[in-house]
Design a protein that fits this description.
Two copies of one chain form a homodimer. The relative contact order of chain A is 0.15. By secondary structure, chain A is mainly beta. In chain A, strands 1, 2, 3, 4, 5, 6, 8, 9, 10, 11, 12, 13 and 14 form a 13-stranded antiparallel β-sheet that branches. The first copy, chain A, has helices at about 30-40, 125-130, 180-190, 195-200; strands at about 5-10, 15, 50-55, 65-75, 80-90, 90-100, 110, 145-150, 165-170, 210-215, 215-220, 230-240, 245-255, 260-270. Chain A is globular and about 55 Å long. In chain A, strand 4 (about 65-75) and strand 5 form a beta hairpin.
Amino acid sequence: MKLLDLEPIEVNIFRGVSPDENRQRIFGGQVAGQALVAAARTVDPERHVHSLHAYFLRAGDPKVPVLYEVDRIRDGGSFTTRRVVAIQHGRAIFNMSASFQVPEEGYDHAFPMPEVPPPEELPTMRERFLSAGVDLPDFLDRPRPIDIRHVDWAGPDRTPRPPHQHVWLRADGTLPDDPILHTIVLTYASDMTLLDTATLPHGGSWFDPTMFMASLDHAMWFHRPFRADDWLLYAQDSPNASGGRGLSRGLVFTRDGTLVATVMQEGLIRRARPAG
Amino acid sequence: MKLLDLEPIEVNIFRGVSPDENRQRIFGGQVAGQALVAAARTVDPERHVHSLHAYFLRAGDPKVPVLYEVDRIRDGGSFTTRRVVAIQHGRAIFNMSASFQVPEEGYDHAFPMPEVPPPEELPTMRERFLSAGVDLPDFLDRPRPIDIRHVDWAGPDRTPRPPHQHVWLRADGTLPDDPILHTIVLTYASDMTLLDTATLPHGGSWFDPTMFMASLDHAMWFHRPFRADDWLLYAQDSPNASGGRGLSRGLVFTRDGTLVATVMQEGLIRRARPAG
């Protein structure tokens, strides 16, 4: 994915651009993915990222590039930590810390994968919209970098549901083998659908024009190797909504049931004023 | 708690000390709590902290003070974000970001509290140790700021158990009413017992001398008001251990069943070399 390929400006400074999309603000997963690219460029590739923690500070402007400035806060014996600030128009729009580790062996356990239908039996998001007879959102009329298949699908139905959902996702096409690339693509994709989970008990969804939603933070832990161009199950729940915010959790499994990542995200969820 | 009372050095710089404990390194919850004090001192008290994300970078030295330097990265209309770096001997030992919000109303849901016995029916940690006939750790021979009652107690038994546990906790004594103080005390206390959860399937516990454990990160989300000097149930599980690391999750409830906070922590867990 070209949008995750950054231009080096100085040793610790990188620049990224947004795809030519007609968005009002940059997709959060893109900034998080590009920030992880910037951090990883300053770390020995033998050390693998095992976690990241980020805040979204201001809406990103898709019309101008994003500057990523890396602070090498720690180079330790086993762990390397980086802080990254994403800047536009002279202001921080995003900040992230990420930790990298020399691979080691240790104790092993993992939550099991929930039983769900395989992705091949599930319609694409485009097919979901078409069969529901609702207007196709603009972005679904273009090729999408990530194929997402909802196991549970609220669709245009606003009936309140429990705050749980499962989606299969994978990058379209075949990616090179470099493990960090798969981690970056999952970072990008993990910002999709997660916050929606918090809206399910309230009859909402991300394509509900009466809800205003924005990611506030994003945290990930990477547990085992995986490929982002093969199907991954994203099992999501939301323990809480209060104070205008919703909190969601995700577990990511390969299709053979291996737990590969854990995700947390809080987002702002407001009832938007009706248009017009 | 005096250890959470910082000395102001300059507008954005504060200094904290460690209690006179015979520890080899500073307790992680103390640094996280003091960093939150520092961040909150630079924010309008009408804005309440709703989340924090932190990395532990180097072991803290209890013999010298810790300097906390605050970066006012964002002052927005509804949200304020702060970054804090804790410094000793010229090096960063810890970094944190925290987000504060003007209180607002919104959608509301929460996971229910698990059913467990009340804290009054459970022995103190000191009583657990004494009745198990094992040597009392030094720190249990002194008054403790946090009273912890384990619902499930592995004790000196090393039988592997599922990665779930529940503890009741509260600050000893009565705290002033200021809400941020209760948040800070929970931040301090939430670093206790959480990582142990990841060792349960491997027959370990925090007082197992054959396991080396160290917090790597700490993230919290605050959902609703609470008092830290009244009992809180800390419901913990661990979705994963791999690569020398364990990941634990916590949900914190008041005793009437209100969900007040969510906690995530990854820690380093190594089989230590036997002493001698």
